[in-house]
Amino acid sequence: MNIVNNLSGTPALLIKPNPAQSFVELQNISEQLDQFSVYVYDNLGRIVLQVESSPNLKLDIDQLVPVFILYIFWKAIKVQSLLNTSILRF
């Protein structure tokens, strides 16, 4: 998991899902992120899924093959709290 910035400077989590896993589950993400969007890109850089804030979000990677990169963009986040908390389950 890496923290990156997009062109507008919005912080993001960059996640490369394990192809052997069937889904990425974000546990209680709303407690860490006041507002966020999830963007799933295919290998050509096209957005194949966009999801807005949700208390418990599950993304079924098997339905999105080939998906290599998952971005989570957020606003008003406590970065230190996020870095010290495991919110991603693979």
In short:
10% of the residues lie in helices and 51% in strands. With 90 residues, the protein is mostly beta strands.
Structure description:
The structure is a single chain. Mean pLDDT is 56; it is low at 1-9 and 76-90. The chain starts with a strand and ends with a strand. The chain is mainly β and 90 residues long. It has one domain (2-89). The radius of gyration is 12 Å and the shape is flat. 16% of the residues are buried. The chain has a five-stranded antiparallel beta sheet. The chain has two helices and eight strands; from the N terminus they run βββαββββαβ. Helix content is 10%, strand content 51%. β4 and β5 form a beta hairpin. It has helices at residues 29-32, 79-83, and strands at 2-5, 11-15, 23-26, 33-42, 47-52, 57-60, 67-77, 88-89.
Most strands sheet:
5 strands, antiparallel
Gross morphology is flat
Question: Gyration radius, to the nearest Å?
Answer: 12 Å
Number of extended strands: 8
- Total tally of structural domains: 1
| Topology pattern, helix = H, strand = E | EEEHEEEEHE
Biggest sheet, spatial arrangement of strands: 1-2-7-4-5
Distance between the termini: 11 Å
Poorly predicted regions are 1-9, 76-90
Q: What's the rounded overall pLDDT mean?
A: 56
Question: What is the count of helical runs?
Answer: 2
Percentage beta strand: over 45%
From the helix content, strand content and strand pairing, which structural class follows? Answer: mainly beta
| Helix residue percentage | 10-25%
